[in-house]
Design goal:
105 residues, mainly alpha, 2 domains
């Protein structure tokens, strides 16, 4: 009977040690996840640098004055035929976007 008690105590001690180690490991992993989560939030909420070189990912939107000037050029190239204002505008806008968004070699 004493041997059984001793064996039972040893088993309980081993089990509690294993559980304690598992809990410690889980706490450690939770702490790491929390740090990562905080880092992601900080990165996600960061204010972008206006001088960053990553402007290539933002598509170029030409200014109204640029579009107007190019649309007039298209009108003149067509022979100054009236009635195509919208087409001229859209063509000018598209040409300007494509010329600026084209990848540099």
């Amino acid at each position: 009977m004493a041997d059984e008690v001793q064996l039972l105590k040893g088993t309980l001690f081993e089990r509690s040690t294993i559980e304690s180690e598992q809990q410690s490991s889980e706490k450690k992993h939770r702490g790491e996840r929390r740090k990562m989560s905080t880092h992601k939030k900080a990165t996600k909420n960061a204010v972008p640098d206006s001088n960053a070189a990553d402007h290539a990912s933002t598509p170029y939107e030409p200014a109204v004055e640029e579009i107007r000037a190019r649309a007039y050029e298209v009108y003149v190239e067509r022979g100054r035929i009236d009635g195509f204002q919208l087409e001229d505008w859209l063509q000018a806008e598209e040409e300007l976007k494509q010329s600026r968004n084209r990848p540099k070699d």
